[in-house]
């Protein structure tokens, strides 16, 4: 082989090309990791109402690391999505030194008992709000079901002028609604919306005209409903608790 000048020439050319390749690769690695390409600008877009500039600045200062080329996009996105009100964050590089971050916030639809909020996408998230929101009480995993029912009950109860304030779903999938005037509706299982619509039809015409504080209206009867009026006084003048009925 050592007497074969052609083979030696080919080997020398191969070694030269390999050396050049390794040199270019090492130079590229050094260039990518060098401080010559820092992220100098962070541009944040989105209609932000709950996420504060201070929170975003804190994430940028403490969670972002690396150069323009080495910064971990997925890790950066996850860091911003840890903020309580952030539903989604998208991160993009823009040459030569800018990081673009688009933030989408949660929009609260209801409270989940005494812990966290439910978004308009029926997703639980851990945040606080001073807004007046309906409250959900239900089994774990029922967020979407309760979110859908809230919208349907609002439409069904609209003729009464009343709105759901507390929505409860039992483990047996029975529904109970407390309205914004304090009246509680027992809607049970099955024809829940039909019962709510029947209540709405009778509220202004008969129930609201009773002249007493109504505590509960049980709509689970097939052809009527029962009304609980704890402050009603009987014929003897004593405070009693009665049940009143009404037909279709």
TrEMBL record:
Keywords: Cell cycle, Cell division, Cell inner membrane, Cell membrane, Membrane, Transmembrane, Transmembrane helix. It is found in: Cell inner membrane; Membrane. The keyword Cell inner membrane applies. It is a single-pass type II membrane protein. GO terms for biological process: cell septum assembly; FtsZ-dependent cytokinesis. The chain crosses the membrane at residues 12-32. Residues 37-106 form the POTRA domain. InterPro entries: Cell_div_FtsQ/DivIB_C (IPR005548), FtsQ (IPR026579), FtsQ_C_sf (IPR045335), POTRA (IPR034746), POTRA_FtsQ_type (IPR013685). One of its GO terms (cellular component) is plasma membrane. HAMAP family: FtsQ_subfam (MF_00911). Essential cell division protein. May link together the upstream cell division proteins, which are predominantly cytoplasmic, with the downstream cell division proteins, which are predominantly periplasmic. May control correct divisome assembly. PANTHER family: CELL DIVISION PROTEIN FTSQ. Part of a complex composed of FtsB, FtsL and FtsQ. Belongs to the FtsQ/DivIB family. FtsQ subfamily. This is Cell division protein FtsQ. The lineage of its organism: Bacteria, Pseudomonadati, Pseudomonadota, Betaproteobacteria, Neisseriales. The gene is ftsQ.
């Amino acid at each position: 082989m050592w007497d074969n000048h052609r083979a030696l020439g080919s080997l020398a050319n191969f070694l030269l090309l390999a050396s050049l390749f390794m040199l270019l690769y090492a130079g590229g690695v050094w260039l990518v990791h060098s401080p010559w390409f820092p992220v100098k600008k962070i541009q944040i877009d989105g209609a932000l109402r709950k996420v504060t500039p201070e929170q975003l600045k804190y994430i940028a200062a403490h969670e972002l690391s690396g150069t323009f080329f080495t910064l971990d996009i997925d890790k950066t996105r996850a860091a911003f999505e840890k903020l309580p009100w952030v539903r989604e964050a998208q991160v993009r590089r823009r040459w030569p030194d800018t990081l673009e971050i688009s933030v989408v916030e949660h929009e609260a639809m209801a409270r989940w008992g005494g812990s966290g909020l439910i978004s308009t996408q029926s997703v639980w998230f851990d945040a606080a709000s001073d807004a007046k929101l309906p409250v959900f009480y239900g089994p774990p995993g029922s967020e979407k079901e309760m979110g859908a029912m809230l919208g349907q009950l609002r439409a069904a109860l609209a003729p009464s002028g009343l709105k759901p304030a507390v929505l409860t779903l039992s483990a047996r999938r029975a529904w109970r609604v407390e309205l914004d005037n304090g009246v509680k509706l027992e809607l049970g299982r099955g024809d829940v919306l039909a019962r709510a619509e029947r209540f709405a039809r009778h509220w202004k015409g008969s129930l609201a005209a009773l002249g007493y504080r109504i505590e509960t209206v049980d709509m689970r009867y097939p052809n009527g409903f029962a009304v609980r009026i704890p402050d009603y006084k009987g014929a003897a003048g004593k405070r009693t608790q009665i049940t009143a009925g009404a037909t279709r």
